[in-house]
Write a structure and sequence with these properties.
Blueprint: E1 4-12, E2 16-18, H1 40-45, E3 49-53, H2 54-61, E4 73-76, E5 91-94, H3 98-107, E6 112-116, H4 118-126, E7 132-138, E8 146-147, E9 158-166, E10 170-177
Parallel strand pairs: 1-6, 1-7, 3-4, 3-6, 4-5
Antiparallel strand pairs: 2-8, 7-10, 9-10
């Protein structure tokens, strides 16, 4: 089975995925009265599990909605000791190097992974483990916060697959890693 790690995320014009205090209210800055999913449904059908970092997990837990995921969710954390009781049947805590974590998830039959969370995405990029990225850019400059991209030891080349415009304001770019 082909193993893939994919990203589907929103970023500001200046490359941040959250504001200086972790705020994501700017994601509602473009009205979406029809509730267009901007390709998320199609994307989620292309993966069989989600691996997110602790901060993303805690952010989702603080949303005032039912648990939003129907696929298996793994939470990657060095500091979290256990999953809160309310989510024990929804997520599994994983620890270790990225290679160890991927081996554990692959052993459970999940090979096409949605990678989410700033630090998690950056760490996967550092180890050249991201195969595809779909980035929706919002027309806002946050001026600081949690960056989508950080320092990398080497360049990683991606090829552009397509661009789409949603709601006349959001530009979504799809990239696939160039095969070496």
């Amino acid at each position: 089975m082909k193993k893939e790690n994919k990203v589907f995320i929103a970023a500001s014009l200046d490359g941040y995925i959250a504001g200086k205090n972790g705020e994501i209210d700017w994601l509602d800055s473009v009205p979406n009265p029809e509730g267009i999913d901007m390709g998320y449904g199609k994307f989620i059908e292309s993966v069989d599990a989600l691996l997110m970092g602790r901060i993303s997990f805690e952010t989702v837990c603080n949303f005032d909605v039912e648990w939003p995921y129907t696929i298996p969710v793994y939470v990657l954390s060095r500091t979290l000791e256990s999953i809160p009781e309310k989510y024990k049947d929804k997520v599994e805590l994983v620890k270790g190097s990225l290679q160890e974590v991927l081996a554990t998830i692959h052993q459970k039959g999940h090979h096409r992974l949605y990678i989410d969370g700033g630090n998690t995405i950056q760490n996967f990029l550092k180890e050249d483990l991201i195969d595809e990225m779909i980035i929706t850019t919002f027309p806002i400059v946050l001026g600081g916060g949690f960056s989508l991209f950080g320092e990398l030891p080497n360049r990683i080349q991606f090829e552009h697959v397509e661009s789409q415009v949603f709601l006349n304001e959001l530009v979504q770019d799809h990239y696939r890693r160039k095969i070496k």
